[in-house]
Design a protein that fits this description.
By secondary structure, the chain is mostly helical. The chain has helices at 3-19, 23-40, 44-52, 85-109. 61% of the residues lie in helices and 0% in strands.
């Protein structure tokens, strides 16, 4: 949880506490609730998403975001979709050994004495 979330939670808790008292404090509670919603939109991760176009930028200022009604992702791909990790590591190890041997062999061809 980020510092912005913590601050928004504190503002929301204070607005709920003041909302039950009425009078001037009740009016302040409405403003604090709006501030909590605004603060949640100031999270750096959300700002980055909006800059990249991954998050909506046309929301109304005082309207809180609502959760989607259903799942947003399709079916997961099957687990056996690629080569075995052991095969990839083995091939990389083999290629590294062959490359090291070749570099060593070329070093003997042109010694620096």
């Amino acid at each position: 949880m980020s510092a912005v979330d913590t601050l928004a939670d504190k503002a929301e808790a204070t607005s709920q506490r003041l909302g039950s008292e009425g009078g001037l404090k009740g009016k302040l509670a409405d403003e604090l609730a709006e501030d909590a919603v605004f603060l949640r939109k100031l999270k750096p991760s959300l700002m980055k998403k909006r800059l990249r176009g991954e998050a909506p930028t046309d929301e109304k200022p005082a309207e809180p975001r609502k959760a989607p009604s259903g799942p947003q992702l399709g079916r997961r791909p099957s687990a056996g979709g690629g080569p075995s990790p052991f095969l990839v590591v083995g091939a990389a190890l083999f290629a590294g050994v062959v490359l090291a041997k070749w570099i060593d062999w070329r070093g003997h061809a042109h010694p620096r004495w």
